[in-house]
Amino acid sequence: MIRWLIVFLLASLVFSGLRSWLQKIGLGRLPGDFAVRFRGRELYLPIASSLVLSVLAMLIGALF
User: Fold this and answer.
1) What domain range is 36 assigned to?
2) What is the count of structural domains for the chain?
3) What's the CA gap between 13 and 45, in Å, rounded?
């Protein structure tokens, strides 16, 4: 359980860093992605995009 939490947190950090590039290809604007403003900062939680990329990585891993 803790391993998946760490993986999800790392994916969130990667998404936050690559947010502008990922929005150009359509990720980051899915219905389960949240952007919250708190005290002048924007917190980005890409839940749906993380799931899509996880499934894609799982399928690629299953093929090879």
Assistant:
1) 2-63
2) 1
3) 9
3-26 confidence digits (pLDDT tens): 877 877 777 777 777 777 777 777
Is the CB of residue 16 less than 8 Å from the CB of residue 44? yes
Q: Which helix (H) or strand (E) holds 63?
A: helix 47-63
Q: Within 10 Å of residue 48's Cβ, how many Cβ atoms? A: 16
Task: Work out the pLDDT band at 42, boundaries 50, 70, 90.
Answer: confident
Locate 49 and state its tokens: 């995009």
pTM beyond 0.70 = no
- HSE-up of 19 (CA within 13 Å, CB side)? 14
